[in-house]
């Protein structure tokens, strides 16, 4: 998984050695070598390698992948690395406090759990066309044949 680096750490008016870049971004020296293979160009092609701050900033802005925006009824599946609509068009709301909770569903492609944090007031806009079931014990949500939240059992009652 690619780590996101803050390009603002590199000051435009400074030049950085490889070790200074390692310390600045808390990475190993091999990461700087990897960045050089991917397009980070030093000021001079000879050793010791020195990098202009503006060059480092531009490289990192291009290197960082943008966050994938999700629309109403869409979730980001970490396993598939793409935006999906939960399987069956059903999600379960699990409260995490008095004002917020999680909408939890299942990825239709790989079956992994997908979730999105929401405020209670935003559920209607975030859900889109999805059917929302609540964890108050009256709803069951099944993913891959396993219930995420189960109903109280009626067994043993006459």
Give the tally of β-strands: 10
Classify the helix fraction into a percent range.
10-25%
Q: Could you state the order of secondary-structure elements as H and E?
A: EHHEHEEEEEHEEE
Fraction of residues in β-strands: 25-35%
Counting H and I runs of at least 4 residues, what is the number of helices? 4
| Domain unit count | 2
Q: If strands are numbered along the chain, what order do they take across the biggest sheet?
A: 7-6-5-8
Low-confidence stretches: 137-156
Mean pLDDT, as a whole number? Answer: 84
The best one-word shape is elongated
> How does the helix and strand content classify structurally?
alpha+beta
Largest sheet geometry: 4 strands, mixed
N- and C-termini, Cα separation = 54 Å
Question: Can you give a write-up of this model?
Answer:
The protein has 158 residues and is of the alpha+beta class. The protein folds into 2 domains: 7-63, Orthogonal Bundle (Arc Repressor Mutant, subunit A); 75-149, no CATH class. The protein is built from 4 helices and 10 strands; from the N terminus they run βααβαβββββαβββ. Strands 7-6-5-8 form a 4-stranded mixed β-sheet. A hairpin with a 4-residue loop joins strand 5 and strand 6 (100-106).
Topology:
Layout: E1 15-17, H1 18-25, H2 29-38, E2 50-52, H3 53-63, E3 75-77, E4 82-84, E5 90-95, E6 100-106, E7 113-119, H4 123-127, E8 131-134, E9 141-143, E10 146-149
Parallel strand pairs: 5-8
Antiparallel strand pairs: 1-2, 3-4, 5-6, 6-7, 9-10
List keywords for this structure.
158 residues; alpha+beta; Arc Repressor Mutant, subunit A; 2 domains; 4-stranded mixed sheet; two-stranded antiparallel ribbon; 4 helices; 22% helix; disordered C terminus
């Amino acid at each position: 998984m690619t780590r996101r680096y803050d390009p603002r750490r590199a000051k435009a008016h400074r030049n950085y050695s490889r070790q200074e870049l390692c310390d600045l971004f808390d990475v190993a020296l091999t990461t700087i070598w990897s960045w050089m293979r991917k397009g980070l160009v030093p000021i001079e092609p000879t050793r010791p390698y020195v990098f202009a701050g503006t060059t480092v900033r531009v490289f990192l802005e291009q290197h960082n992948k943008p966050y994938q925006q999700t629309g109403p009824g869409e979730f980001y599946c970490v396993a598939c690395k793409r935006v999906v609509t939960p399987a069956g068009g059903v999600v379960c709301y699990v409260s995490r406090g008095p004002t917020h909770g999680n909408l939890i569903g299942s990825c239709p492609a790989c079956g992994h759990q997908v979730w999105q944090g929401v405020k209670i007031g935003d559920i209607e806009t975030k859900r889109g066309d999805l059917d929302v079931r609540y964890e108050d014990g009256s709803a069951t949500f099944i993913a891959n044949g396993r219930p995420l939240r189960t109903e109280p059992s009626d067994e043993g009652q006459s």
